Amino acid sequence: MEDLNNVLRVQEYINKMRPVFNKRALYSDETAQYRTPMEPEAGDVVTVRFRTMKNNVDAVYFISGAIRKEMKVAESREGFDYYAIEIPVGNDPIHYYFEIQAGKIVCYYNELGVTRQLQEQYSFGIVPGFHTPDWAKGAVMYQIFVDRFYNGDSSNDVLTNEYFYISSHSRRIEDWSKIPDNMDVNNFYGGDLQGVMDKLDYLQDLGVEVIYLNPIFVSPSNHKYDIQDYDYVDPHFGKIVHDEGNLLADWDKDNTHAKRYIDRVTNKENLEASNQLFIELVEEIHKRGMKVILDGVFNHCGSFNKWLDRERIYENQPGYEKGAFISSDSPYHHFFKFHNEHCWPYNEFYDGWWGHNTLPKLNFEDSEELQKDILRIAKKWVSAPFNVDGWRLDVAADLGYSAEYNHEFWRKFRKVVKEANPEAIIIAEHYGDVSPWLQGDQWDTVMNYDAFMEPVSWFLTGLEKHSDQYRQELKGNAESFRDSMRYNGSRFYAPSLLTAMNELDNHDHSRFLTRTNSRVGRINTVGARAAEEGINKAILREAVAIQMTWPGAPTVYYGDEAGVCGFTDPDNRRTYPWGHEDQYLLQFYRDAIRMHRELPVLKYGSLKMLKEDYNLISFGRFNENEQVVVVINNNNENKKVEIPVWETGISRTIDTTMTRILDSNAIAYDMEQKEYQVVAGYLELEMSPLEAIVLCRGCELPQKKEEEAAEKEGDASTVSNN
Q: Looking at domain 606-704, which CATH architecture does it have?
């Protein structure tokens, strides 16, 4: 009897004994699973949640400024306790973190995870009224550099010697497959908006949800970041219905003689017809359930711009005011900053962006009229009849001459855009700390260089985004990847993070596929051929697997899916290889995009890093019912790994299975589903070289849905036949 009593006492002691404090079980974020509503309005009551291991801590406190409230366990499941508290939301932002007590242990939890030393600047945040469009959260975007995508209308092609710009005449490139020259700004391949229209079936089949167009407004360059007229689509991209005048002679550099060009870009028939084509394009895009974003270049314009008119394109054209270069009495005089007020006519002493006289800087601070005009333009294109779905803003933080003014202007910009189209998105190009701009009153989000493009490139290739630098110590450095993603991601609130434009490359940076050769260089130093030598498509597939499963909007730069290579600008602007695509890679993109689109947890779910090792990372995306686990082995050798998938919310006491839905390795990829055992919350995998695996649990799998639909159709057919 005494022995039995001793056993009972020991058992009672064990039952009351708290497990060893498990800091990896601690979790919260700003997604809907841990904050409801995720994007609250002033006056809402928000439920904030925090996760611990079951019966593992003494207390959890919600702390915001002087407020310190103990949270209560609201739910226990799968071996976890979920603490909750209700917080009323006023008009001011709320910044909060958590304090956890377990015995003598006191730690904190914020955007950086678990920490013993509190850093309040990394607190979670609620910004009342900060909403980003739901359609943009996790949306698959596709960036098109229009001149190099597809020539749908050869009648609008820029002609050789049509005008003179930056030391050379315009040149029509007859060979679509020609590699861009090192000086490429005046070379035109003929891509246009009709070409985009013609390829909408292709984009829809690829799985694209949003089309982002590089600038399309009247401009003399192929890239069009030197806007000539913000009110009209360039007829060379649109429609030329009136086409008269001479071309320049080979020796002639005077654009006042460029009569064919002047007629094409100033004739209102051409301009209105081009705008009408764009209206029709947007309507067709919307009919297909897709969105379209325009590129806004507002910190500078171009020397051809009608407000300046350095090239005297508009000087003698009816219906146009004198440009500021032409006359000191120009209504646009203060649109630019002149340094010599005694040089008219033809005053060339004005500020250029980064000193380029072909890119005159717009002088917002000294011209209320300029500000009004740009705000008018911002509103115009997101309103009927154009109805675009948002703006991408070029080098947005460089708009004015001071940060203070820039913040002020973008607040006004946001107001007019959102009033005209509340569901329009505002995406800015920005390098560095994004937090001052993403406070709910300026930009919605950014092109995600620091919290996506750069860390992925460093980890998988060792190259920075221009292929200008190779760093061996960063290649395969999983801790650096984790810390960079964590730190830079902490500068976003959830509405911005879930809509961030996650690119592997774009028109400014080397193609990611080229970076897989880990070669430093540019087209003028190593030649175009080097961009294709030693590339590794398996590494690109690894990158795409990350891109399609990481929080944000995965953005494909045209041609990446077809295997296009290229060093940084201008080599990255090679034409889309119609009829010569890498069909295997293209199908991989289709499958990866379909996976992303059909699993909502990849758009809205939480994120947690699960494992880091040399050349190996694993992370989870999860919500209350679904878990996705991604494992990347960037080693050139086999790797046996054990992944703590329990950290995504999977039980450690009940064994289960996860289903592989994507597998890519050094040789091939497949989407065949395969089940893996999860034992005590851990998943063991034998990873082959350069392998990327995506597994899920609790998800409605695409293939299964197709099989179920087929079975239902078969059952219906059987009934009918009987």
A: Sandwich (2.60)
